[in-house]
Amino acid sequence: MYRARSDGPPASTRQETEAGRPVPAVTMRLCHGVNATLNWRAFAEGPRREQLWRRLRELETRVVRILVFDPRGPDLMGAWETFTPFVEAVLRSGAVPMVTFAQFEPPYDDPRAVRGYATRCTEIVQRCLDRWGGESVREWYWCVWNQPNSEWVSAGMTFELYRRIYEETASQLLSHLGPHLMGRRPRIGGPAVDGFQPFWHDWVWRFVHELDNALVGFVAWHRYGDWREPGAWGAPAEEAIFRSLLLARTAEYQSRALCVSRWVQGHGIQNICGEWNAHSHHEARVSRRFNQTTFGAAYGASTLLHLARGGADLELFWSATDDGGPFGLMVGAGNPTPGFHVRRLFAHHVRHGDRLSFPLGPDYHDLDLVVAHGSGGRWSAPSLIGSACRRAVAGSRSSAARAVRGSSRRSSRGAWSSGATASPW
């Protein structure tokens, strides 16, 4: 990662490859957020909570996702007093909540169950309006359901059933939020689809094109590198091959983000990657070495570049913290993992609204470079060194560190200063 003075970038960062093929520039739309359902009590009320909030502010965290109606989250209906400090913690970290109403028990086609779910969701929105006021709450996100397309989570759910649940719930939410929106689009959305499932894209396309868009402010989708233990369920048993496969598939964040961006274009709907990490296996012995290590940092750097290039509006990492688990950006009392440092560097140097160019183009396979052009002549150029990423599959700390930092150079206009060039490890 490096940053120049305001005399402009080197001439070599023009918008064409040496072969003369143009490389499209994009506006940086990506905002950053995290999931905070895991270890939520420590985040809301723990003795080191203020350190966790400060860490999230360092990451320019805009949104913190909260799962409710889920055994991992607070009990809103039975113990509202546990939810209030959770939301206060989100606000004090400089973010707004995305409250995700996870699910209700089947049958999903029972009209009384659907009305009861919609009513519970609406009661929560109203209590938030009463507690924090419409001017604040209108900026929050409200997600209807979590992974409705997954047989593991929502067995028996179809899109037709989900559409009915969504329309009834979103209509009730909008009736309460509407008077406070002042012409703003409601930040109500879904379906938070599981990206491992076949035909996940059908759910997203139908969500955008078959629902009344007056009820839709965002569409959310999830993506992880893999869920399988190496050697199980057809996954490569050799560690190096498995890691190479994970890194190679980070390009799918870009292709999926681009696909969704095309579908929502002209609809005024935000494109949100609602959960992501390198590995989703719940056992630490399987996934920690892919998520909370320098390998995970290299994976994260590549993912952020691809999401930005694909035009995603918001990414929500899983997870901010995880008490002893394999997913947290921070461990213990807020100690950062290598992935935390990557996110901080990216957030500080590739900012929302910057004009992003990719000067090396598709001909370069060993270096992924993005130049961020900001206001006042500011520019920065974080690079992801592909060959170093590939060496990182062997678990080398130095290789992975090189994979997510830039190097000092000199422009044709004279010397310029490097910023944040030191390895974060």
Biggest beta-sheet profile? 8 strands, parallel, barrel
Supply the helix-strand structural class: alpha/beta
Please list the strands of the largest sheet in the order they lie side by side. Answer: 2-3-4-5-6-7-8-9
SSE string: EEHHEHEHHEHEHEHHEHHEEEHEEEEEHH
Mean pLDDT: 86
Task: Count the E strands.
Answer: 16
What CATH first level of the largest domain would be assigned?
Alpha Beta
Helix content: 25-40%
Low-confidence stretches: 1-20, 396-425
The CATH topology label of the largest domain is: TIM Barrel
Strand content: 15-25%
Describe this structure in words.
The protein is an alpha/beta fold. It has 2 domains: 1-28 and 354-425, no CATH class; 29-349, Glycosidases (TIM Barrel). Helices cover 38% and strands 17% of the residues. It has helices at residues 40-45, 49-58, 80-92, 111-132, 134-137, 159-181, 200-210, 239-248, 251-264, 284-291, 294-310, 338-349, 386-391, 397-403; strands at 26-27, 31-35, 61-68, 96-101, 141-144, 188-193, 218-226, 270-279, 314-317, 330-331, 335-336, 355-357, 367-369, 371-373, 379-380, 383-385. The strands form 4 sheets. An 8-stranded parallel beta barrel has the order 2-3-4-5-6-7-8-9, surrounded by 7 helices. Strands 1-12-14-15 form a 4-stranded antiparallel β-sheet, with no helix packed on it. Strand 14 (371-373) and strand 15 form a beta hairpin. Helix 4 runs parallel beside helix 6, helix 9 (251-264) runs parallel beside helix 11 (294-310) and helix 11 packs parallel to helix 12. Mean pLDDT is 86; it is low at 1-20 and 396-425.
